[in-house]
Amino acid sequence: MSIEQLQLQRYTYADYLTWADDVRQELIDGIPYLLAAPTVTHQRVLGELFLQLRQFLKGKRCEVFISPFDVRLNPNDGDDTVVQPDLLVVCDKSKLDKKGCKGAPDMIIEILSPSSTKMDKFIKMRKYNQAGVREYWIVDPEGQYAHVHLLKDGEYKIAAYSSDDTAVPVAVLDGCEINLADVFASIDEQGS
Question: What pLDDT sits at residue 35?
Answer without folding.
Answer: 93
